User: Fold EAL domain-containing protein from Parasulfuritortus cantonensis.
Amino acid sequence: QFYTEDMGAGAMERLQLESHLRHALARGELAVHFQPQCRADGSVAGAEALLRWNSPRFGMVPPVRFIPIAERSGLIVEIGEWVLREACRQGQRWRNGPAPEFRVAVNLSVAQFRQADLVARVADILAETGFPATALELEITESMLMEEVQSSLETLASLKALGCMLAIDDFGTGYSSLAYLKRFELDVLKIDKSFVDGLGNDGNDSAVVHAIVGMARSLGLAMVAEGVESHDQYDELVAFGGEDILLQGYLLGYPMPADELDHRLASPTG
Ligand code: C2E
Ligand code: CA
Ligand code: CA
Ligand code: CA
Assistant:
């Protein structure tokens, strides 16, 4: 049973979703899945943590439906912290086992980013799980940075002081001011799927991705390309990015439960 669009965008349905989401964490309906981020040779460097909600009432609810509801209701703060803890806990398990260099990327929501004690909470979770800050990549979006530039700069500086890596998610879909890339202390630029989509057949997208790669390099940023689905896209990204780019997408692996990634990491090809 899958949640479909037909069931709805209505206010009634949103309220129903919200009231169920309120108990989803306590009832064990939420899970963190992990999507591999791979090097050009196919080996797994790390994974992005992606939230899943399997509701007994609504079935599998996609994040695009429930994350905005979680954001608006404030539930995202508690849920997001749980995702972070789960991601660090699993990540440390992989570092202690098959993948000593394993890193995890976790999405931060606006509400979390604006939390006064965000940095202390991240520090607590790192201490609790033993996961090193340098292996934790926090994904934020362009719009989050541009909303309140001064306080964003301060939050980023504190997260950097803690040792965390900072990634700009969905690059190219927001304000895309090149100036801010220099201004904020970012480490990783995630090339949005919308640009990757056209690689291999659309000359314009190739030119855009080539330009993004060149710019990221000159700013000393690492890159992750998201939404890699075809061999043509993979080949072109590797040709542009070489060792500086990680690849994430269905071609390399779907988001999967932790125990499935265990098997993947145990296999000789990683
Ligand atoms: P995102 O951060 O841009 O995550 C990438 C999305 O692209 C994921 O969708 C992933 O499953 C999907 N994806 C990856 N590779 C491919 C591909 O090759 N083809 C296609 N068609 N899709 C691909 P997902 O898991 O449905 O998540 C959607 C969005 O929900 C995420 O977009 C993120 O903004 C948000 N989200 C997910 N988990 C969390 C979370 O724990 N916290 C917060 N704040 N947001 C989250
Ligand atoms: Ca993301
Ligand atoms: Ca993304
Ligand atoms: Ca995206």
